[in-house]
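go over whats below:
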Amino acid sequence: LQGHKLILDQCDSQDSATIEAQCAQKVVNDKAVAEVAGSASFNVTALQATLDAAGIPRIGMLMSSATEYGSMTDYAIDPGLILLLAGMVVELIRHGCKNPSLVTADDPAAAQIPPLIKPIATQAGGTLGNVVLIPGTATDYSSYVLGTTANGSCGGAIALSTDQANAYIHTYSSLGSTFKLSFSSGTYSTTDLKKLPASVMTKAYFTSGEPFGDDPKVPGMANVEKILKGGGSNLTLADLQGQSIGAVLAIHAFMVAAGGIKGAITAASVNDAMKNATDINMWGATPPWSPGKYITVGGPFGSVFKDVSNPFLWDEGWNGSHRSEEH
């Protein structure tokens, strides 16, 4: 970048609150100019406070906490986990399931989510049903699938990692369940879906901040594949999960914004560049993005979140062979 070698400085929090805080300090100690495509859910408050104090911008991260929505050095390409989950709930309400449950991982960020989603569900004309928390150590998912429809709930918004979601899906199928499901398509690729029960997935709804790589309506995703092949990867667009596409887009946005910096490339100059960048071409994944411009959120989502850097969400369906944009 402008003659400077870029170094990837990675830190795995290992789902530990202590290590997550240490990772944040490592970013500061290593004098990183930005955190790109990161995520945190076990000690978000400490991580965010550390990076804010150092003035290090976070670009394209997955926001999982209200703390992150309030930071002026965070530039998220998508609306973040809370609004994504709200979108999944609203999608079920729009399709006739008026009291969907929320099924999510049992981690520290989970406690913040239901109080924020409840008013959004109400504004959308429904109510939030049960909150089903699944620990990472779970092996038998029967009680969680059955618990989804307790108290008369008609469906579930499944906000789990790919492995946990797969376990839930297979249990759902083996139990002969028929209630409505919505998923974050960020955890699935076309290749992934072909390995799951078609009878379940073709009836499900998918919500994501990024499109699916092989969606023919987003030809700009060919740029993502070109970057991957340039790096020696054999992955195709059908192999990419939405969160992987989001990571590439985050790097792209960073390169575009930082590429215009005159002078030293530092955390402060990158933050200024992101704040002042306008209409970054996101290859059709989202509308042109101006990271420092906050857009007023309308509809039911606006009852909780007033302004988001990029409130765009994709709603899609799976027909057994390819993804199709629903609306």
Q: What stands out?
A: The first strand starts at residue 35 and ends at 36.
